[in-house]
Amino acid sequence: MVCSSHFKAKYVRFLIKYHLFIFCCVFIMTSICISFIIYKRTQINYEHLLRGFQAHGTKTSDAYRKLIALIRETQITHLYPHSSDSKAFQQTPYPSFNPHINPCTKRFYLSQCPILPYTELTFEFNNNNTKLFDDINTFKFICKLEWNLRTNYTNCSMNQSCCQFIGPVDLLFPNEFRSFEQCDNITQNEFEEYHNQWLLCTSSSSSSLCLNSKLKKYLTYLESSLRFKIYLTIENDKNKLLHLYDNLYNYKFDQIFYLKFVQFDLNDEEILLNYFLKKNLYFISLTIFLYFFCLLLFVKNLFFILIISCHILLTFSSCFIIYFYLFHFPITILNYTSLTLYLFLILIDSFLWYNCWFINNHRRDDCTIQRIIENLLTQTFFYLMPKNLTAIIALVITFTNQIIAIQCFTVFSFLLILISFFISFTLYPASFIFILRYQSSIPTIEHLSYRFITSTTSCFIDRTIPCLIVRFKGFWLTLFTIISCFALAIIFQWPKLQYDVCRLTFDTLPVHFSSNINEKSLKSIDIDVTYYIGSRWEVPYESLIPLRDIPILNYNREDRLTSEAARTFSYALNENLTQLIQFCSTLKNEINKKQLEHTDYHSNVSSQILDNNSIISTSTQAENLLLNNYHCFGDLSSSNIDSSLITDTKFSTYILSHSNQRTNCTSLCPSNLTDTKQQCLSCLNSLYYSSLKNNDLILIKNGLRYKNDGQNPRYLFQTMNYKWLFETNLNNYIEWYNLVKNLKRNFITNFYSKIFPEMDIWWTSEIFSSFAIMEQLQQEKYLFISIKFITILIFLTLFTGVLGIFVTLTTLLNFVTCIATLTLLNYKLTVENMSYFVIVLIVCSQYSVLYSISYKLAPTFFFQRENRTMYSLKQLCTTLFNLTFSIVIICIPCLFSSVSYLSKSAMVYIISSLISLIYSTFFLQSLLCFMGPSGHLCFFIPWRLKFTRTLNKHNNNHNDISLRSSSTGGGGGGGGTRRHHRHLSHHRMSTSSYFASSYFSQIFTGSTYFESEYGGINENSVMASRRRESSRSHQASHLIKHGSLLTGELIELYTPRASLAPHLHHNRYSRQSSVSRGLTSLTPARPLYISPSISPYSQLSIHSQAPSQQRTPSPRILRPSRSRSPRSFAPITTTNLLRPCYSAPRLHVPLHRVPTSSMKQNDDILEETQVPIVQPTKKTVMIIQRQDAIASTDDIEQLSPITNSKLSATARRNLLKATTTESGDLVWLKRSNSS
What we know:
This is SSD domain-containing protein. This protein has 1235 residues and is of the alpha+beta class. Helices cover 50% and strands 6% of the residues. Among the domains are: 142 residues, no CATH class; 355 residues, Multidrug efflux transporter AcrB transmembrane domain (Multidrug efflux transporter AcrB transmembrane fold); 130 residues, no CATH class. Strands 5, 6, 7, 8 and 9 form a five-stranded antiparallel beta sheet that branches.
């Protein structure tokens, strides 16, 4: 769009001609997208917002995914061999099996009950000396509490035990808990009997005497005698769940005990999250209202705010259609985070668009809409392009993270930023064209907010901050460097950014709910590790929607083989059945020792297992991993289970109908199996399932599985229960890494690998879903964040030159400080917080990149660091202050929300924006002022200029000869050549298109156009035959060709110029060309500071006058500059009486010089009003001097311009000679045909 001036001009003309058509198209597209979403609303599921918080695509996650898929696919007919013509298989026993298990809280399960999703309520007594059986009244009170919870939230019958509700009193009343009055009728003898039963099941020495198996299992989940737990399942009943949540803290416990922890199931948390968001809808509504209020306060144009709203709707609706219907990504809660990030970025973009348009709209010489829009597109492109590309780089690298929710967040954010960028460059220019054409009928509040904004920002922002930066830059650099070092210590040493394993995915519950137990108090946990030994099967392409991620086992390759083939699992199992039986008998010794022996994969222990049939070895021991319990397939011992027990499991009825009459399989399975392998295998299968028929949780993770072909087993599940002892704590990644390392090297893995070498063997655990997430977070913490900063450094270096190094350094220190602040606020390393850290990185980069672009686009004569720093601050400091103020105001309501998601998001935006503003304003600007580049900022600029000179060598050869002859020759011949060259140059191009920086026009009384290092002057020199800027383009090409980049002509071309008062009979301004400078001054140049009164808001006082006076600035006298601009030529002395202009008239570079007699240290510009043909004698001569280093209001006086009327030619020549002789140098004069 702005790569070519010719294309830019054509594009602007297209916008001007069809801006109303563009509006119609945008409104129609928005309506179509919204209508399509409404029409397809039934396909959109907003309820499952917590799906996708799991890793995929890694070795650990793939093994875990296979385990969950096999558990979901297991059918009861898979337990036994069956014929191919058997009945259709039943549905999966547990299709809603929770894929993610919190390692801090074990899955609660009781035998004789199905696997249910329980809500865990943990109560603790107020008095540390109080226990459950200390007082009968306390016991009665707990009994009444259980009855109320059971009757209100479960569907249990009154005459039997219920698996939907588990409590201490309910377990002590087996099949007897029938009424509320039963609690009041408990006698002292019954109370003591219950107490004895409780102690009998609690004691480890007498646990074998405990006849209440449910109570015995329940007591294993109690960490202390001062606590008791109640488990209930609500069966995904939304009304009951919300009623429980609303009334949970309303129960009167008579100050005996209190509710300490609440642990909801994942499905219940999803219901509660939607409920919390709806309940806090007024906070969200207030935030949206403040968002548009800040837009109204700082944008101030109601029509443009309407366009911004339409832009947001169109971008969101189109991105959602692409994201959900085209890419088929799931909707997660982090998609809302993507939306908040987009609203933050569009707030920055809207402020930049409006300020650029405001400045260009109030330029006095840019009277045409074409010129205003061209300047607007140029400036906004150079600001928005690197800013948005930096955010896209961070998102693209984050997408390599294998957590599904993070990938959904990055994809949706990427679509929003990219599509919004392209829409903005079509919609916003069209809106400004509409505003310019119908400005009188569009409401605005610019005049209302002027006084408030000016009074609060002009003094502090425009004057105090630049002064503090220039005078104390060393102090700011030292201070923020020390703060960053402390931030690094906070992140990596103390208190340290740690994992939160107990809440590793998303923090759903409100702040006042305590759902996490203290992981530091945990010294050990029990884990179940499941080993898969079986046929290789292909997993289909992984779905990003976890609920649909159930792979179909495909054994097509094995089905083509015969049953005797050595590669089938059935054949390998028959060959190694004897070793499997011996291995199961050997594991009993390990249970007695309570110590797991491990060795390397190729150690001698494996050979001892195979050769000597024993586990005895002298290898080292894994002291942090103990073997607790196991149910080995191949155990020949009988197990007597009372089949009369009341059970509600899904497997028990089917197993009883297929049970074997044998009590053991010893007679069928001797040590030397020959012909009885099939009978032994069938007996072992029947014995194994009959002994565990009432325990569904063990059956779904153990035993043989027979798939569709019927007779041949496909795989074997073997689950071992370990006791994992911690050396430090559960949140330490090294503990998890050592756990996986020990499991890879233990003898069980080696045994299965040795006897089944050609089979597919892998192992995993339900808690390894947490380890798979921790692996990705660990990579993000150390690897991906480094790649992001390196990529940003390379990109910014290519885009902004050496400034990229300073910007990346500032962003790094800024990011470290923000993360340290969030760490002090107890932000842990979780999936949710990882998305916040990505947002922090994007916010930090936005501020620094914008300042660097403004520093880079400083005018070419600003070759001093202080000057560029002042220019950068003048352009963006007020805008970024307004942006930060808006973000704080918008986020304040969400800080008071009880939903942790809203409060944490608001805190992240407030902290990141405040710290980013401070670092980018004080640290970056001090760094640039202290050691930033002062000249050209791009590494490959000299090559570009050399290439440009080569291109222009043949085209401008004749003109160069003319220029050289005019500079060396004298008399009329040289003058004729110069006049001929000026005539050709003038007729070759006109003055309606240029490459301008209207920002700089607000700094001095005149204005300038910046030399863009992206194209700027060099483009003009290359495209000299196509551009219509004759004198400027040709002179720039001439200067480049002679290798003089910083000559007096080039500096004069981009130094401020003044405009004269309007002609008496015309509304347009008439100007004289600027006066160039002669030889280069060798004296050191002093800093050329910027007037602090110039800003988009301070200009409002000038442009808010009456229409008749809007284009007529008041006359002023400006003091001469106390210092020369860097690399400038000696200035000329002119008269001090001239009316200044606050814009940049386009002037031609003069091609001839007028001799002067003296040189002085002031920097004046002489301009001559273009005289109409009918009145050649009337001229208005206005002379303007450059402003002082820091302009003051005391230096400005109201004077009228000098008007020379009815002067003869001789008098005018004498006046001109007197004026130029005083300076002592050559003066170039040329009439200006601009405007």
